[in-house]
Structures are given as structure tokens and as C-alpha cells.
Design a protein that fits this description.
This protein has helices at 22-30, 90-101, 120-141, 155-159, 183-193, 213-221, 239-252; strands at residues 3-5, 17-19, 38-42, 48-56, 61-68, 78-84, 105-110, 148-149, 153-154, 171-175, 181-182, 200-205, 225-228. It is an alpha/beta fold.
Length: 253
């Protein structure tokens, strides 16, 4: 059954009627679907419904909610990837794959070694584009939650903000090439101390060339933990996804 993101579902009750957003409506028409056929719609916040197509016009499609759909595709922990944006179109792939792997949020960052630098309207347009990538990936992989792509920030500003503090995350790890604890040992220590349901993790990773020594030292002094993914040096767009894959495998078996 085709799935579509529709944004908020106000008063989501059986028989509630709503108009599909323009993009979803166009997709329904491209698929040559007809009144009486059913689709699944979700709001990005965890709610999903079967809906029956009703009235169709040249530019609009109305649907009627039928029944809620249980959706249990979220990780038991909330993981944010704080990523030094890689160059070219690699950030698109990071967003797409992070969504598929269960990320809760992505924080794009600019550091000293960043090639890609975004500010003002250009940054806002990129974030809107990446949010669209996350929506499309959620439609494809079956998630009813769409990860939030936060506005672009400089690493230094973000690292010293409340958004990156221990009050926001129980576990903060910087992916490092220095002497560091293995991600497996960090996970084992974390899960041995308390229930992990809803616990918030964040992984910080640099752009091409990584974080410089000053940036990584600043993170460690702020209470972050240096974590290694193994003996090989991973690319900027590989490392955060590798960390997320390890986390998903650990918590989902």
C-alpha cells in the first residue's frame, strides 16, 4: 500500500476527511489511483492511518481516515548525529541513510576543516531540502517518525550551547582517531547502568579531514567521550552511519 507524509493530522479520528498535500496528491494521480482505493498516511510524529481516497480533482485529492496503523519501527533510544557537513552531495546520502537506520535528529555543523559552508538563505534552503530527503526516506523505510534536520550551526557555537549539553543528552560521544574507548565497551557500560528506553545519545563527527585537535579537545573538556569505531579510518560520510548501525544492531538485536 503506498505511504505518504501529510504533516499534522488534527482531530485524527475515523471518518475524518482531509486534503492531501500537493506533493502527495500529485503522486497519487501519477500512480493512477482511483476513489475507493486505500493508501497509508503518516504525520512524521509517529501517527499512521489507512485512508480511503475520495474526491479527486486535477490538483487535489481528498481522503477519509479509516483506521490507525500500529507502527513499531523506532529505536528504543533517541540518537542525534552531529555531522561536520561533507562536501558535494554526500550530506544527502547521510540524511537518507541515517533516516533508514533510525536517527532521531541530524545537526549539520561547520568546523575549521569544512569545505561546505552555508549561511543565511542558502543554509535555510539546504536544510529544507535535507528535511525533504528525510521525509522521502521515511516514506520508503516505513517509519512514521521523520528525523528533524536542525539549522546549520558552527561547531564552536553549537558545542557550547544548551542544545549540546549533558542536560539534553545522557551520552555524548565524539568519533575520534585518538586513543579512545571502543563503541562496544561504551555501549556495554551504558546499558549495564540503567534502562535505555528513551535515553538520548549524540555522536559528533567532523567533515573531511576530521575535527582539528583544538575542536576535539574542546569537546572532551566539555564532557564528551572519545569513541573509536575500529582500526580503519572511515570517511566523513561513513563514520556517523557506522556508529548508528552499531547502535541499531545493539538495541534491535
Amino acid at each position: 500500500m503506498p505511504r505518504f507524509f501529510v504533516g499534522a493530522l488534527p482531530s485524527a479520528l475515523p471518518d475524518h476527511e482531509l486534503q492531501l498535500p500537493d506533493g502527495a496528491a500529485r503522486h497519487v494521480q501519477v500512480l493512477r489511483m482511483q476513489p475507493g482505493q486505500c493508501i497509508q498516511i503518516f504525520d512524521g510524529a509517529g501517527h499512521e492511518w489507512v485512508a480511503e481516497i475520495g474526491e479527486m480533482g486535477r490538483k487535489h485529492v481528498a481522503v477519509r481516515l479509516q483506521s490507525p496503523v500500529p507502527n513499531h519501527r523506532e529505536l528504543p533510544v533517541r540518537i542525534t548525529l552531529a555531522v561536520g557537513m561533507p562536501a558535494n552531495d554526500r550530506m544527502d546520502a547521510v540524511i537518507e541513510k541515517a533516516t533508514e537506520l533510525g536517527a532521531h535528529a541530524i545537526q549539520p555543523l561547520m568546523s575549521q576543516r569544512s569545505v561546505l559552508r552555508l549561511e543565511g538563505d542558502r543554509a535555510a534552503k539546504k536544510v529544507a531540502h535535507w528535511q525533504g530527503v528525510a521525509v522521502a526516506a521515511s516514506e520508503q523505510c516505513g517509519r512514521a517518525v521523520v528525523p528533524v534536520v536542525h539549522p546549520v550551526q558552527s561547531l564552536n557555537t553549537w558545542l557550547h550551547s544548551e542544545a549540546a549539553s549533558s542536560a539534553q543528552f545522557e551520552h555524548r560521544a565524539v568519533l575520534s582517531l585518538r586513543e579512545a574507548r571502543s563503541i562496544r565497551s561504551v555501549l556495554q557500560a551504558a546499558t549495564a547502568t540503567a534502562s535505555q528506553q528513551g535515553v538520548r545519545w549524540v555522536f559528533l563527527n567532523g567533515p573531511e579531514g576530521g575535527l582539528n585537535e583544538e575542536e576535539e579537545t574542546s569537546a572532551l573538556k566539555a564532557g564528551w567521550q572519545a569513541v573509536t569505531l575500529g582500526a580503519r579510518t572511515l570517511r566523513a560520510d561513513t563514520a556517523p552511519l557506522a556508529a548508528l548501525s552499531v547502535m541499531a544492531a545493539h538495541y534491535e538485536g
